[in-house]
Design a protein that fits this description.
By secondary structure, this protein is mainly beta. It is 13% helix and 47% strand.
């Protein structure tokens, strides 16, 4: 099977997102609404350039020790689309099982990143987003808005 290139794929967005408290390193299982300012999302675009594409999120993110095991493709040419307030990029997928999974419907995406969380006028805000990977997942936080194959 040959590698597949998917162009201008939306993979992250500005606005409110819901997180379970423990996903942010906080105690409990409350659902927290976190705001991603469009400017913060736009500034994060280049931090996703060259990050691995994975199938699901690896525990602890992708590291130098795990990249060969976890990487099924690569993200390139990320940019912020002002009209949709989304990050988009090209995705080159070369791993055969990942290509087959995409064909079978595993298309939603979820960014893996580090970020700071601060209380602000809008509530909890995500800042200083630094990309680590983008995962193919059964159900992404943003739903079908961020997916390969629209």
């Amino acid at each position: 099977m040959r590698a597949k290139l998917f162009r201008a794929v939306p993979f992250a967005r500005a606005g409110y997102q819901e997180y379970v408290a423990h996903e942010l390193g906080r105690a409990g299982s409350d659902v927290l609404k976190v705001y991603r300012d469009p400017g913060e999302v736009k500034r994060s675009a280049q931090s996703f350039n060259g990050v691995p594409v994975t199938v699901d999120h690896p525990d602890g993110g992708v590291s130098g020790d795990s990249v060969k095991r976890d990487m099924v493709g690569i993200v390139s040419a990320p940019f912020y689309d002002e009209s949709s307030q989304q990050l988009k990029a090209d995705f080159l997928i070369w791993e055969e099982q990942a290509i087959a999974a995409i064909a079978d419907g595993l298309r939603e995406l979820s960014g893996g990143y580090a970020a700071d969380y601060q209380e602000a006028a809008r509530g909890l805000e995500q800042r200083d987003i630094q990309g680590n990977h983008v995962a193919l997942v059964p159900k992404g936080r943003s739903g079908s808005a961020q997916r390969i194959g629209g």
